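[agent] plan:
  1. take the single chain provided in the ticket
  2. run structure prediction with default settings
  3. attach structure tokens to the ticket
  4. add a short note for the reviewer (M.T.)
[agent] executing step 1
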Amino acid sequence: MRYELDLFGVIVPSFLLWGVVAYILTRVAARVLARAGLYRHVWHGALFNFALYVCLVAGLSFISRELVS
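[agent] step 2 finished; step 3 output follows
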């Protein structure tokens, strides 16, 4: 895996890319869970969303390390 990406001449870490992708996936998953009514079973919605984001970032970075490199 490349650890830096060249984005229009600006070098950014690849973890930033996975963080943005995970944020988008978290927002989509939160809307789906809210529409399905599953937030009724969650104790703290913001904490649940943060945990979901952390899990997605970790999963994406692990998958990218295993598949891309």
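[agent] step 4 note for reviewer: The first helix runs from residue 14 to 36.
[agent] ticket updated
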